[in-house]
Design a protein that fits this description.
With 325 residues, the chain is an alpha/beta fold. The protein is 45% helix and 17% strand. The protein has eleven helices and eleven strands. The chain has an eleven-stranded mixed beta sheet, sandwiched between helices. Helix 1 packs across helix 11.
Length: 325
């Protein structure tokens, strides 16, 4: 019996580990996308971009101080000789130049290197010169949690601090669009709160109920929504059953929409550090998808982020329903 249990556990772990592999394999079937890689001046960000190029995901254009990136490449034995390098004086200039090149049609996605997120997003959101669209910009974690059968999206845990209802509508729609674009089908979307009943004392429960009604009225499309749901009854069928919640989403959620950035950031990091999850990250709602990972992320996570961006950009090519510029 122990051997059977061990085998089942190993199979479950293998299945969990294959989530990113399937994502990367799907992106490899798409023509490589031109990607503006912004200030990849440490080993992880530079190697992530080059390895994504080596397996056919992207054709990188490196935007960084030439002497600095060349020194990093020499130190870590990374060959950048065959890639275009746009020389800029510093990280702020790298962000501005990369956005300028995107606006000029030189690339289909943007990839964050070793600069701070604020530096990159300041250029992306700049009035008149940035990459804003009619859609609210939001961040999505694509989580590979070994103990959960589904690929799990968490949003928004990195961009919108205290989103209002209109912002949450776009946050939900961005996540649904990504989920569909990467080939995972029609998602089950849980709008999270601390409880699963609507109460005026907890405003996020009212937002959750409103978002579900917006989906009923066609203001949010492409997913199955339910909320408010507490985290336990969103992802655990037993918890949902005990609470008497009958829903196609409860206990089987694939997208978790958090009330605010603090809740989302803590949830995502809990999964990474306590459940040993991998986290890929994308920003949507701009003119192009933005690979926005942490400087502490592994090369594998960066590759998965890049794969998701490629699949999303490919879906946009063939779809007329994209955020308006």
């Amino acid at each position: 019996m122990k051997a059977v249990a061990a085998g089942a556990a190993e199979a479950k772990a293998d299945e969990a580990g294959s989530k990113y592999d399937r994502l990367i394999a799907a992106a490899q079937r798409v023509a490589a996308m031109k990607a503006l890689v912004v200030h990849p001046c440490d080993e992880t960000s530079l190697r992530g971009a080059i390895e994504a190029a080596d397996i056919g995901l992207i054709t990188p254009i490196l935007v960084a101080p030439a002497l600095k990136i060349q020194a990093v490449a020499r130190e870590h034995d990374v060959d950048i000789g065959k890639f275009e390098l746009v020389d800029v004086p510093h990280s702020d200039a790298a962000a501005a130049k990369a956005v300028e090149l995107i606006r000029a049609g030189r690339g289909e996605l943007l990839m964050k290197g070793s600069l701070h997120t604020d530096e990159l997003m300041r250029a992306v959101t700049a009035s008149g010169t940035g990459l804003r669209t009619a859609r609210r910009i939001s961040h999505i974690f694509v989580m590979d949690v070994p103990t959960y059968a589904e690929t799990l999206f968490i949003t928004d845990a990195a961009v919108n601090i205290f989103p209002d209802l209109d912002a949450k509508r776009d946050i939900v729609q961005n996540a649904i669009d990504l989920f569909t674009a990467v080939g995972l089908g029609k998602p089950r979307v849980a709008i999270l709160s601390a409880v699963e009943t609507v109460t005026a004392k907890i405003p996020s429960t009212i937002d959750a109920a409103a978002l579900c009604k917006m989906a009923d009225r066609g203001q949010i499309t492409g997913g199955v929504l339910d909320g408010p749901l507490a985290f336990d009854n969103a992802i655990d069928p037993g918890a949902a059953r005990i609470k008497g919640i009958q829903s196609p989403v409860a206990g089987r959620a694939q997208i978790l929409v958090v009330p605010d950035l603090e809740a989302g950031n803590m949830l995502a990091k809990n999964l990474v550090y306590l459940s040993k999850a991998d986290s890929a990250g994308l920003v949507l709602g701009a003119r192009v998808p933005i690979v926005l990972t942490s400087r502490a992320d592994s090369v594998r996570s960066r590759m998965a982020s890049c794969a998701a961006a490629v699949l999303y950009a490919a879906a946009r090519r063939s779809s007329a329903t994209v955020p308006a510029a």
